[in-house]
Specification:
The protein is of the alpha+beta class and about 325 residues long. The protein contains eight helices and 15 strands. The chain has helices spanning about 1-5, 40-50, 120-140, 140-155, 160-170, 215, 260-265, 300-305; strands at about 10, 15, 20, 30-35, 55-60, 65-75, 85-95, 100-105, 220-225, 230-235, 245, 250-255, 275, 285-290, 310. This is 4Fe-4S ferredoxin iron-sulfur binding domain protein.
């Protein structure tokens, strides 16, 4: 899309809206609307998971967020006198629905610290954002949707449509296996699918927590905390050996959690308290979200968790 975005970059000073209000507080906005539908949760999740190795990916409601970070230095040797460096980033927001909007904002460099010495910051941020858009479009399910759209509207062959897509995305990097795998076939009517019993792990499960667990896992039980708050438990539960993900809005994957206590120390409103889970292979103590309704969504616990076992999500 970088080729088409060339004539679709605007300077803005106030918010703009489309299916709701975008909270834009930057000086430059790139926006491109794809004439394809993206509403299937499986396809949306495939974009989030498919690009985690190249970008930082997240999802909230109907939006996907991809963040790219890079470092600028004023000289190659950090030991030289006068050396400066600054960490910069740009984010692409993908709004799903009956059409797909791909949006990026370029903030003033001052947002990231003392970076006025950085040369051509806006051009670099602009190029990085367009690289992200091209990469996601070329390698995701959106590529197939765009090819199908071009074939149907322009009456060209799939090969010609693919060539047009490649021409429109010259900055794309190649990301293998980013497209969704075929959905498993539904069982015949009347046939019940029996889930295999999960094996007991020998230690902590590797992080991070699956941020889309609510759309994939069922609530298997509720646990009443000492505060009387009822905590939802998602996914498999096998005694204390496999615990699943606890908490609806303050969510901790207890099979990843190593019980280091950083989240308990970081929380300013004391949401967590220790709970014993004897025999759990990851750790026998876990931070119980006993006062989950008191969470102020500051993300302190999520940010300090060394194994990325926590996901904080706002209600609604």
């Amino acid at each position: 899309m970088s080729l088409l975005l060339k004539d679709k970059v605007y300077t803005v000073q106030s918010a703009t809206s489309k299916r709701g209000v975008y909270p834009l507080h930057s000086y430059k906005l790139g926006l491109y609307r794809l004439p394809v539908k993206l509403e299937d949760t499986y396809e949306i999740d495939s974009i989030v998971s498919g690009f985690k190795k190249v970008f930082e990916m997240d999802k909230f409601a109907d939006r996907i967020y991809a963040t790219y970070r890079w470092k600028e230095e004023n000289m190659p040797d950090p030991d030289d006198s006068g050396y400066k460096s600054i960490d910069l980033e740009v984010q692409v927001e993908i709004v799903t629905g009956e059409v797909v909007d791909m949006i990026y904002q370029i903030y003033p460099v001052e947002k990231y610290g003392d970076g006025l010495w950085v040369e051509h910051y806006r051009k670099k941020a602009d190029a990085n954002a367009k690289m992200m858009i091209d990469t996601i479009l070329r390698n995701s399910v959106l590529a197939d949707k765009m090819v199908e759209h071009e074939v149907n509207t322009k009456k060209i062959t799939p090969e010609q449509a693919l060539q047009e897509l490649e021409t429109m995305t010259p900055l794309a990097q190649i990301v293998a296996n980013a497209k969704p795998k075929p959905k498993p076939a539904a069982p015949p009517p009347g046939q019940q699918v029996v889930e295999a019993e999960p094996e007991t792990p020998s230690g902590a499960k590797p992080g991070p927590i699956d941020v889309d667990f609510k759309s994939k896992l069922k609530v298997v039980e509720t646990f009443t905390a000492p505060s009387s708050h009822k905590i939802k438990v998602f996914g498999h539960r096998k005694g204390n050996e496999i615990l699943g993900i606890w908490g609806e809005f303050v969510s901790v994957d207890y099979d990843i959690c190593v019980g280091d206590g950083a989240c308990i120390d970081a929380c300013p409103v004391k949401v967590y308290e220790w709970a014993e889970f004897a025999g759990n292979p990851a750790s026998e103590k876990k931070p119980l979200m006993a006062r989950e309704p008191d969470c102020i969504f500051c993300l302190a616990c999520e940010n300090v968790c060394p194994v990325q076992a926590i996901k904080i999500s706002k209600k609604g």
